[in-house]
């Protein structure tokens, strides 16, 4: 995006990650405001050529292989702004939302991540995930805007760049699907506040090419792997049964080759944070939101990290 010399420098870079979704990018890239970094995860459908031709102002990073969610880290590292917004190839931020996020970050230096309200498809139906975040039972002093959360959907999150990088960004252990969970845990453990602010809005038109069944198995596998990396052993053991129920035996079997890496990354969370996660799990078990609808919308079975 061009800017005049009198215009203020942008404060937010939007990082988009895509793989073989050329048509979705054609519809979404032009909607982004400010600098954009597109990390292409080894697409073979002509995505890179299309972006180079149609969107020359987009900073394109064509990867030879698919790095999964970790590809977002590359975009964050390339960003030259203090804040970074994530978007998928089928989502974009509503006008004014990133400017509002900038004002919040500037005013509240304790905040490391802001989660936005998600409106689905052309009908702009609110994602059920938003209700879970809006009614979060986590303790709140009222000093910060929005509601406290311990989970988020990547396509509807803005992060403080330094905070995100300080916790290692998205990791290679889970690869993709449910990758937000460990990042949320580590940001909170490091003392950063995570807030849901519904005044920030993201439009999400889920791609028809999404593989629902395959994604459910990945989320179940990655919930188990994240529990191994961060949760007490009793919680991790319970996740074996939970993963089998949600994603089938395949979810557990596919986790086995990744267990050595998960064990090497193991670092249990502070006791007070673990208490909050258990509180969330108990609350979420009784919350009257259609969790299946959440899974349909964003591929997540839970939010706020309430999986213990």
How would you concisely characterize the structure shown here?
By secondary structure, the chain is of the alpha/beta class. It has helices at residues 22-28, 47-54, 71-78, 97-107, 128-134, 161-166, 180-189, 212-230, 233-247, 249-255, 259-264, 271-284, 291-298, and strands spanning 12-18, 36-40, 59-62, 83-88, 91-93, 111-120, 125-126, 147-148, 157-160, 193-204.
The count of DSSP E runs of length 2 or more, i.e. the number of strands, is 10
Radius of gyration: 18 Å
Q: How many domains comprise the coordinates?
A: 2
- What's the end-to-end separation, in Å? 44 Å
What is the CATH top level name of the largest domain? Answer: Alpha Beta
Mean pLDDT: 90
Into which percentage range does the β-strand content fall? 15-25%
- Give me the CATH architecture of the largest domain, please: Alpha-Beta Complex
Sheet bearing the most strands, described?
10 strands, mixed
The portion of residues assigned to helices is 40-55%
Oligomer: single chain
Query: What's the SSE pattern?
Result: EHEHEHEEHEEHEEHHEHHHHHH
- Helix tally? 13
- Which stretches of 5+ consecutive residues score pLDDT under 50? 1-6, 291-308
Tell me the overall shape.
globular
What is the CATH superfamily of the largest domain? Spore Coat Polysaccharide Biosynthesis Protein SpsA, Chain A
CATH topology of the largest domain: Spore Coat Polysaccharide Biosynthesis Protein SpsA, Chain A
Q: By helix and strand content, what is the structural category? A: alpha/beta
């Amino acid at each position: 995006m061009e800017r005049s010399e009198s215009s203020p420098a942008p404060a937010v870079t939007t990082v988009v990650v895509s793989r073989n979704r050329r048509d979705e990018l054609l519809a979404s890239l032009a909607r982004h405001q400010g600098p954009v970094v597109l990390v292409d995860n080894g697409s073979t459908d002509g995505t890179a050529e299309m972006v180079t031709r149609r969107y020359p102002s987009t900073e394109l990073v064509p990867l030879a292989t698919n790095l999964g969610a970790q590809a977002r880290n590359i975009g964050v590292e390339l960003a030259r702004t203090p804040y970074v917004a994530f978007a998928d190839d089928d989502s974009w931020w509503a006008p004014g939302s990133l400017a509002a996020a900038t004002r919040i970050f500037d005013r509240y230096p304790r905040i490391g991540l802001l989660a936005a309200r998600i409106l689905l498809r052309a009908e702009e139906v609110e994602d059920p995930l938003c209700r879970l975040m809006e009614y979060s039972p986590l303790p709140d002093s009222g000093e910060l805007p929005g509601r406290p959360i311990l989970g988020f959907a990547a396509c509807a999150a803005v992060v403080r760049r330094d905070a995100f990088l300080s916790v290692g960004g998205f990791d290679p252990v889970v690869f993709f699907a449910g990758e937000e969970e460990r990042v949320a845990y580590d940001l909170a453990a490091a003392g950063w506040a995570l807030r849901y602010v519904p005044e920030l809005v993201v439009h999400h038109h889920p791609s028809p090419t999404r593989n629902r069944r395959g994604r459910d198995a990945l989320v179940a596998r990655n919930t188990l792997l994240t529990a191994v990396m961060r949760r007490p052993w009793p919680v991790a053991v319970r996740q074996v049964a939970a993963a089998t129920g949600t994603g089938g035996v395949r979810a557990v079997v596919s986790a086995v080759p990744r267990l050595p890496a998960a064990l090497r990354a193991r670092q249990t969370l502070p006791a007070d944070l673990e208490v909050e996660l258990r509180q969330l799990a108990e609350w979420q078990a009784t919350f009257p939101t259609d969790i299946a609808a959440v899974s349909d919308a964003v591929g997540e079975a839970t939010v706020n990290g309430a999986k213990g």
